[in-house]
Amino acid sequence: MERYKEIERSIIKKYRKVIWSKFIKAVTEFQLLKENDRIMVCISGGKDSFLLAKCIQELQRHGKFPFEVHYVCMNPGYNEINRKMILENAKILNIDLEMFESNIFEIVSDIDKSPCYLCARMRRGCLYNKAQELGCNKIVLGHHFNDVIETTLLSMFYGAEVKTMMPKLHSDNFEGLELIRPLYFVREEDIIAWSKFNELTFINCACRFTEKCSLDDDTTSKRKEIKNLIKNMRKTNPNIEYNIYKSLDNVNLDCVLGVKRNKEYESFLSHYDD
User: Fold this and answer.
1) Domain of 128, in residue numbers
2) What is the number of domains present in the chain?
3) Using an 8 Å Cβ cutoff, are 247 and 162 in contact?
């Protein structure tokens, strides 16, 4: 059996409970895909987006309704080693990948203040433009369950607001485009286990500013700080991540100081005497 077929089999057999079933749960529960959707799967080169691509492939082949898929990698200025690895992994995994070029890393290289923020915005804009060019109505990203939990805590600790990474959202600037995250319930540890089981090697961080450092060696980023915090809390509360997620699906509006909807703030005092 060809290697990519063995890899596909591992998703729906060995890792069915922790990957495939959770992928299907998110697609179904959040109504992420509909018949005749034209979707663009964004592949960064990491383990998450490549697993996502394989799950989407499997769903397209054996799902209950038809939809069209484009697999795309936007090259913001990867070094040649990373670029080659992405293309080689696409070949190994039997993914018909289109890589298109941009010069985002070059543009932000001279930015002293918030280069990561600008880079992220520019990359997102390039992907939305590419999706429109392809006639797609949905962009698919590979964020997983741990990303959701970490983003929630980052928003609380450093953004002073309670919000999370949503499983889907409409674009504010590109009419008719929607962003979806089908790996919403899949845990990172299971993605790592899947990649190791299949002896796959993916790029960790392709950023020009940090590419010399492995993600595991990054002791300065706020996200790494949050990862370590959750890891330590899990020692005494194994359900910590699920509880954080569930709290966002169980908000008691009678016990919050204020809420924001459509960018308008409303204090609990506005209805206190009702």
Assistant:
1) 3-210
2) 1
3) no
pLDDT in tens, the chain (274 residues): 599 999 999 999 999 999 999 999 999 999 999 999 999 999 999 999 999 999 999 999 999 999 999 999 998 888 899 999 999 999 999 999 999 988 777 777 676 665 666 777 788 888 999 999 999 999 999 999 999 999 999 999 999 999 999 999 999 889 999 999 999 999 999 999 999 999 999 987 656 555 444 444 443 488 899 999 999 999 999 999 999 999 999 999 999 999 998 889 999 999 999 8
Rounded Cα distance between 66 and 193, Å, is 30
Q: What is the pTM of this model?
A: 0.90
Q: What tokens does 273 get? A: 């005497």
Using DSSP, state whether 151 is helix, strand or coil.
Answer: helix
Beta strand segments in the chain, E: 38-42, 68-75, 97-101, 138-140, 168-170, 178-180, 258-261, 264-267
Q: Is residue 33 part of a domain?
A: yes
Distance CA 206, CA 4 (A): 24
Whether 74 is in a domain gets the answer yes
